[in-house]
Amino acid sequence: MILDEYGDAAPCPPYYAAPVKKAAHPMDTQVGGDHYKTKGLQPLEAVYMNYGLAGLEAAVFTKVNKYFRDKSGMEKKLEDCKKAQHVLQIFQEKLEAEIAKEKFEESYNRNR
Prior knowledge:
Blueprint: E1 2-3, E2 9-10, H1 43-69, H2 74-110
Antiparallel strand pairs: 1-2
Helix pairs in contact: 1-2
């Protein structure tokens, strides 16, 4: 057992840092199979390219609405919930990117 400077049990030596697991990119994962992930262009990417954030907002709404409409059972509801969360992660990522782009453009135009 390793003790810290106060004589209490330390979980690990102070020089050891636990490895940080980086979260997978939302577009690199898929909930409920791999039928979209194996394609060149995922449907949500096409939705975003054609309709922007409004298209992703609609996709989030659709997934959440499906959760409440589905009468299948708890396991299916859980899968629908995970799918909605996945779409929401993609929406959040795109929204953050658009905010960053706006801020960059504002600062660029201000400094011209």
